[in-house]
Design goal:
140 residues; mainly alpha
């Protein structure tokens, strides 16, 4: 009963929001299969079926349909995507020159990631992000 009650409360909550803020809920949402909260139940079900079929086809023919991917595989992207690799590298090297995080061997993290000895994508993204934020904080 608890699960059913919880779903009813969620449904009721969404209906209240839709009635009070109709324009806000025309935005597409991940939780509704990429549709707005105003989308009909049948449209959501249709989208779920299409998504499942697409995933099955991708398992058999991985290069055939790539629409279901909504993220970047940073582990491989940093190694293979020219511009992503350059942005990450340039920013971590600029951060390294600042000597702010001198307890981290940034060169080693980069080299071991690029040479596939380890997956340091998360660390590289955080370090590059730190440098980007430091640059954005400067008065230019």
């Amino acid at each position: 009963m608890g699960k059913l009650y919880s779903r009813y409360k969620q449904y009721l909550y969404k209906r209240i929001l839709l009635n009070n803020y109709p324009k806000l809920f025309t935005i597409l949402t991940k939780n509704n299969c990429g549709l707005s909260l105003k989308a009909s139940k049948s449209h959501v079900v249709y989208r779920r079926v299409i998504t499942k079929i697409t995933k099955l086809i991708n398992e058999i023919y991985p290069l055939f349909l790539n629409r279901g991917i909504n993220y970047i595989n940073f582990n491989e992207g940093i190694r293979k995507r020219k511009y992503l690799k350059k942005v990450i590298y340039d920013n971590i090297m600029a951060l390294n020159k600042r000597k702010i995080v001198d307890w981290i061997d940034i060169d080693h993290i980069w080299e071991s990631h690029i040479s596939r000895k380890a997956n340091h994508a998360n660390a590289l993204l955080i370090l590059a992000s730190l440098e980007i934020h430091l640059k954005a904080g400067k008065k230019i």
